[in-house]
Amino acid sequence: MVETRKVQVTGGSTYTVSIPKDWATENSVSAGTEVEFYPEGDSLFLTPRSEDERTEGTLDITNLDGDELMRAVMTMYVSGFDIIALESGRITTEQRRTIREATQSLVGLEVLEETRDRVVIRDLLDSSELSIHNAVTRMRLIAMSMLEDAIAAIAELDDDMARDVIQRDDDVDRLWMVVSRIFRATLRTPKAAEELGLPREVCFDYQSAARQLERIGDHATKIAHLTLNFEAPVPEEVVAALQELYVDARKVVDDGMDALFTDDPDEASRLANEAREAVQEIDESARKIDELLRDLDPARAQLLGLIVDSVSRSADYGGNIAETALQKAAPTP
User: Fold this and answer.
1) What is the widest separation between alpha-carbon atoms in the chain?
2) 43 and 60: one domain?
3) Which of the given ranges, 7-16, 120-129, 207-216, has the highest pLDDT on average?
4) CA nearest to 251, candidates 274, 231, 221
């Protein structure tokens, strides 16, 4: 329900406005309570000032184990809890192992307390020290190097390189979780956006791009897994076509990311539109490679077809980033 108030002038120069009583009661605001104001464009956000900036959440893990427990810890982390208390009548050895794996897979987490029925995890990072821009930039570097090495691995049938690509996917996932955590924090409180020094709309754009980069990392990992199934070299003409497809796909992603990061709206529009147009050409190139595969053994052709699809999809994700960049560059209503 929307409530309105009239702005009044007191003392001849001070503007004042009353706040709704129901809201004040629900948020423990009374006479003498300090509140904080955060300007954002033509809006002004008000929030009660909190002495304790760290939020704690408790989760009953009695019936959780394995992947389900892993996902639960990750969800609490992304949701923004600084202290996560995991409780049960008796925490099993397997549960403790899973909790340690989850802690190691997330940036900034450390086990603070461990007893028979309780494990407490704490985020040691100061939110003001985090940079969503740096996290997305790092995701870009890792995801694109993974895709490059995945193509090199299939060209050379280098199993060691393929396994290295698979391992690096954990780094991309860790950064994706960080970006998601930061973004959700900006949704909860304007203070988080102020500490980042970025408008919440820009944080949304970065989070959208990070999601596409995470998917590119997944497809590079998929290519690496498929590479491990090959026993004989891939025909040279197919390798050459795949490498050319990768170069074109990479340019789409790079143009999309450059368009997202630039502060020049005209340059952003130029790069983003070029990237979107290139996606259609890449789809045509992918179809031509599929024709080359028709003369191969059906099993090998199927594996290579999946690799072609993954490279093509990576270009599609670059096109999605370009679309986000166009929205970012558009005039703000």
Assistant:
1) 87
2) no
3) 207-216
4) 274
